[in-house]
Amino acid sequence: MSSTYTISRFDEVDQQPSDTPSEIRFSQKHDLVGVSSWDSSMYFYTASAPYKLRSKIETTAPLLTTAFMDDVCLAGDTFGNLFIIDLNTGTKNTLKLHESGLRHIRIFNNNLFITGSWDKTIKVFDLKSGQSVHQINLEERLYTLDCHSEYIAYTTAGNNIYKFDLQTQSKVQLQSKMNYQIKCLAAVDHESFMVGSIESKCELINFNFPDKGYAFRTHKTTTELHSVNAICVNPKNREIIVTGGGDGNIYYYNKSTRQRILTANMYTPITCMAFNQDGTVLGAGIGYDWSKGYQVSETKPNVKFIKKDDI
Description:
Elements: E1 6-7, E2 11-12, E3 21-26, E4 32-37, E5 41-46, E6 53-58, E7 63-69, E8 72-77, E9 81-86, E10 92-96, E11 102-108, E12 112-117, E13 121-126, E14 131-137, E15 142-148, E16 151-156, E17 160-165, E18 170-174, E19 182-189, E20 192-197, E21 201-206, E22 214-217, E23 228-233, E24 240-245, E25 249-254, E26 259-265, E27 270-275, E28 281-286, E29 302-307
Parallel strand pairs: 1-26
Antiparallel strand pairs: 2-29, 3-4, 4-5, 5-6, 7-8, 8-9, 9-10, 11-12, 12-13, 13-14, 15-16, 16-17, 17-18, 19-20, 20-21, 21-22, 23-24, 24-25, 25-26, 27-28, 28-29
């Protein structure tokens, strides 16, 4: 899996978060990029260069996740709170959804949102009614989560991987080649998703045809292994899968040929990534990724962008 092209110039936001970005998302309705941060704030930037800061919404605890849904932005914190931010008025409402950290928020079929927590639950909500429509009780703390079509894929502590069918309400535990902690997960299509681990490894898992799955090493040197911190899939060409690592590199891969087609070096650990809705821009949050444990880090957080024209 050799790289065919390397870039090192990027656009970046005009005002950086003061701590590491935890998640980045593009709004499908508003000209906005949303960034949740460990500094307990949501940052909203224009969705194209020069990526100017439009507003900053402060909360009461570090933010772990964010998502856009129509005219609101959702954000979750380390205490299990959900913040609902009205993008037209800037007002913020708070709901206590979980008993521990709200680790992931995902939008499902445009009318439901899914939350996954360290309190060992996944919940599905209807935003308009404000009601929970389903709850999945887990055996362990949730670490990663994504959804596609009619399923939710998630991992829990102990490297357990599950696929939950929302139509049949059935759960299947899946096998993995990972030996160490799974750090990230991204749904690829209606029958497969990819996971990345702290051991510099990615694995494509196909739950309908397991033989189509495969694993490969990435974000490694001859002497060091770096964590795969983020994975995302191009929404307009789902053959293109992108990984972001603790080595500061972003790699674009072709899923079918299994070839690396692009390297982007940002020199600082990648902590989160997302494409805009037409797949022409990739946004990446960079900062300290805790790979060296709890210590004061001199890594400067930032948010950078790769345009299709750069590739």
